[in-house]
Amino acid sequence: MRYLPLTPADRAEMLGVVGVSSVDDLFRDVPQTARRDGTVDLPNHLGELEVEQELRALAGRNRAAGDGLFFCGAGAYRHHVPATVDHIIQRSEFLTSYTPYQPEIAQGTLQYLYEFQTQVAALTGMDVANASMYDGSTAAGEAVMMAHRVTKRPKAVLSGGLHPHYAETIKTLAHVAGVDIVRQPAAIDGEAAVVDALDADVACVVVQTPNVFGTATDVAKIAAAAQAAGALLIVVTTEVVSLGLLKSPGEMGADIVVAEGQSIGNGLNFGGPYVGLFAAREKFLRQMPGRLTGETVDADGRRGFVLTLSTREQHIRRDKATSNICTNSGLCALAFTIHMSLLGEAGLRKLAALNHQKARALRAELAAVPGVEVLTPRFFNEFAIRLPADAAEVVETLAGNGVLAGVPYSRLDPAAGLDDVLLVAATEMTPDNDIRFLPRALARVLGAKEQG
Amino acid sequence: MRFTKDHEWVALDGDVATVGITAYAAEQLGDVVFVEVPEVGKVVKTGDGLAVVESVKAASDVYAPIAGEVVEANGALSDTPETVNHAPEGDGWFAKLKVADKAAVEALMDRDAYEAFLQTL
Predict the structure, then answer these.
(1) In the predicted model, is pLDDT for residue A448 greater than 90?
(2) For residue A374, how many other CB atoms are within 10 A of its CB?
(3) For residue A35, is it within any domain?
(4) What is the ipTM of this complex?
(5) Domain housing A292
């Protein structure tokens, strides 16, 4: 088969039809700073062996989470993924399938999505969950737009404990839908402050628990205040394992719950692909984004599954669809489902308890380091500490010694003025030895800084 | 009763117009499974989206055949959307609009004209 590219005349004709003068005009919406002029300087072709050697050398320059001491979290958590998960998701029926476009023929896919939804609904304490979103932050953006559709109000209030990347994503998505975003100043323990901003224009308040500083919050009072003001409460969770110990957002009165599901069944994977969880109260079902799997019976009365309420979706509702997501994070959702099935309710509780126990041990060790102050009052497996130095510099120094000590808050939100704040996390993967070693390494660096 | 080319009917009583979809439209849609009716107080211009009707086949917008303010919506349809199939030009009405321009209603097709219009489809 010959590949026949477009001729310059073909291009000119096509550009004429859409009414622009050059291909570059089609990219006008991309800021100049994000564009690249000219070609990318790539090496010439190489043989397979040379490519393999080259890539191995490149990979060797990475520092994987498992290569040394690791205390990073801030929205992505290093948990154990059982070998069974990888084994099952690599079955070709799962690995190669895309979101079902001729759904009922793919009963296996629909069944695991139905089980995924059931797990997410149970975990979040909500009535309904969809078949997953791209990740936690885009799910949060969708939740804000959904609240805007439900209440027909123009404003969304984001707490000072919401992960800054989530706040940015919400802003990016919701400004197109015409939602005004009010973001409260960064606060370690200030989720409840969103109620001060409630007025007749507020469509929703968005709070996070545990929040980006690790603080766990009982949101029941926020839910009551939001409800009284006619606004929806959106609860964000970036660490779903916490739901094994903490009261579910649904029990506390949330209207929409969104979460990052990476912690269950999915590795850190350089930051993606991840899986967004999205759950809501049943009365908002028709305003939900994304795909929904339902259970039914066939003509012979046998149990089966369908994609349901598709009339919300883009392929039917076109521009009036509830969202432009026409897919889901299928494979990551499958990994979540398998791991959650392996854990079961008791296993999840045990896993969560172990995480909390490790974090408590780490907190006790770090609190004893001279000059270090623990800021987070109530936490699950992550908390914030204040250092007597710039946190990013300390992290950089420790990284040189093979210790990834955590995430400096300034890395997430440089303008917040919290340059001395470090977020540290511990999970079931954190050995007790590492927990004892971190404060010593930290004390050495801080001591050296003081002398220097 | 007056009709539009979008297959809506309008029945005027005083200055209140009841709006629904025609028997032809209901049959074309198939089994109606959900109707989103407007909120009372909503003010619409002719051609604005007034309601959404969802069947097993499709979801369709219902446009306001005349301008007015919604004074009543058929809330019963949320529990029994199939009424739209059983009695499209009766109990299956969608909303009642208070209209300012009654002449605009009179200007729509009468039943004979609508039947003739259907013959052309």
Answers:
(1) no
(2) 18
(3) no
(4) 0.70
(5) 83-339
* Cα–Cα distance for residue pair A324/A172, rounded to 1 Å: 14
- Predicted pLDDT at B99: 94
Same domain (yes/no): A359, A436 = yes
Residues of chain B contacting A317 with CB distance shorter than 8 Å: 59
Sort out which chain B residues have CB atoms less than 8 A from A311's CB and list them. 34, 54, 58-59
More confident residue, A65 or A348: A348
Number of domains in chain A: 2
Per-residue b or e along A411-438, where b marks 16 or more CB atoms closer than 10 Å to that residue's CB: ebbeeeebbbbbbbbbbbbbeeebbeeb
Task: Please check whether residues A231 and A267 belong to one and the same domain.
Answer: yes
Q: What is the pLDDT of residue A452?
A: 61
Q: How large is the angle between the packed helices A432-451 and A391-400, nearest 10 degrees?
A: 120
Quote the pLDDT of residue A209. 98
* CATH number where A316 lies: 3.40.640.10
Report the CATH number at residue A356: 3.90.1150.10
**Inter-chain residue contact A316 with B61, CB threshold 8 Å:** no
Q: Is the peptide bond before A370 cis (omega within 30 degrees of 0)?
A: no
Tell me, yes or no, whether B121 lies in a domain: no
Strands (E), A292-371: 293-297, 303-307
Comparing A403 with A316, which gets the higher pLDDT? A403
Calpha distance B84→B56 (Å, rounded) = 13
Q: Do A277 and A257 form a contact (C-beta atoms < 8 A)?
A: yes
Each residue's pLDDT tens digit, A93-139 = 899 888 777 888 899 999 999 999 999 999 999 999 999 999 999 99
Nearest by CB: A316 against B34, B58, B61: B58
- Residue of chain A whose alpha carbon sits nearest to that of B54: A311
pLDDT at A58: 94
Predicted TM-score (pTM) of the model is: 0.88
